[in-house]
Amino acid sequence: MNLNIHIKIPRTIYNTAKSDLSRNHPYALERVGFLFGKVGKINSVSKLILINDYFPIDDTDYIEDDQVGAKINSEAIHKVMQKILDTNSGALHTHLHNFPGVPSLSKVDKQSIPPLVRSFQHIVPSQIHGIFLFHSNHHKSWIIPPGANNIKLANKITVVGYPLSINIYE
Amino acid sequence: MNENRSSRQSFLGNHSELLFQSVKVAVVGLGGGGSHIIQQLAHIGFDKYVIYDPQKVEETNLNRMVGATSYDVGVYKSTVMKRVIRNLRENPSIRIYNSNWQANPETLREADIIIGCLDSFSERRDLEATARRYLIPYLDIGMDVFPSISGQPPRMVGQIILSLPGKACMQCLGYLNETSLAKEAAQYGAAGYHPQVVWANGILASTAVGIGIQLLTGWTGSTKPIIYLSYDGNLNTLNPHPRLKFVDQECTHYPFQNIGDPTYRSI
Predict the structure, then answer these.
(1) Residue in A9, A158, A163 nearest the CB of B217
(2) In terms of Cα–Cα distance, which of A41, A52, A59, A50 is closest to A16?
(3) What is the ipTM for the molecules in this complex?
(4) Hey, are the CB atoms on A48 and B109 less than 8 Å from each other?
(5) How many domains, chain B?
(6) Exposure string (b/e) for B45-73, b if CB count within 10 Å is 16 or more?
(7) What is the pLDDT of residues B85-131, one digit of tens each?
(8) Which CATH number fits the domain that encloses residue B217?
């Protein structure tokens, strides 16, 4: 089934997340956070992901590792999983590549994110989980649909604010 | 410079033509206001529509419904609007529902923006609640004429409200309140007489379309997300509503935690 995904994120949450991810960390090269959202059903092949919260990772939950931009510990993952369970939400791992252009997944992202997303699916399989990448002037998202193995590009992202920002991805 | 259908509105942005073609607009209510709005959206270049109205054209609609003629009496309003769009756009996508939106709410959720041209407070409340639930900006227009009292002339008033998720809603703005909803509910079933005129509908609809275009393109550079304009049809003025000075910017009635499909828990 070719699922059509439209992500909507309020501009206030978008700005909060981007601002948090832009902050320098004492030793990690980049920051990590999670966007939480709920599914809105349109029909059997089209779904909305409606972002309603941003969850930053505490400074102390990062692990020093110069092989990657950021590595977080099991305590951070535990907190995120607990929030998924408590709020019955989907979660999108997010970080910022602080340069312009259309984002793409790095080799590390491709290796490390799918297992994390699949573990989220075990907690709340009815919601949709994935990754949301910020660039300094753009954003893009990939999700793993329930029951699927491969990551899939979100078809449309709307930042809901004034003005409205709509991006469509083929 | 290439002259085409959009060249006179190129100031709206390099990609505005593509934007208008890809944005899906839902219009709920196709009377005096909705018909104006649809005609203008088609002129501007919008190609994707979801339109709702259960009514057929009546003789009484012909004083204001743009696009309708004497030959359309008895035809669904949506059919008339479909014709208006198709006369202006080459290959539009139009989902029409000859019903209230509640009968087909899933399609409404796809909309990038909803424009409501409804008659009652309760209909507005329900539509705004759904727009908030699915993070859709909602533009509301409406007008009324209050009968003359004590020899004074009738009063023609109206409003245009932009209800943006997270920002002040129509309850925050004081437009919807328990008193007006209760009063309306007490009169439920009364057919009533709803005065409507084409020029007032046109002013409100045109202004709403302008607000919608600003929302989509940001061409004016304005960053004020809360819009509540008050129309005085006797003075022919359109002004920011006085209540705006006292309104909280953030909405307390529709928290983001309540977005998404409604769910029910046993208690």
Answers:
(1) A163
(2) A52
(3) 0.94
(4) yes
(5) 1
(6) bbbbbbbbbeebbeeebeebbbbbeeebe
(7) 999 999 999 999 999 999 999 999 999 999 999 999 999 999 999 99
(8) 3.40.50.720
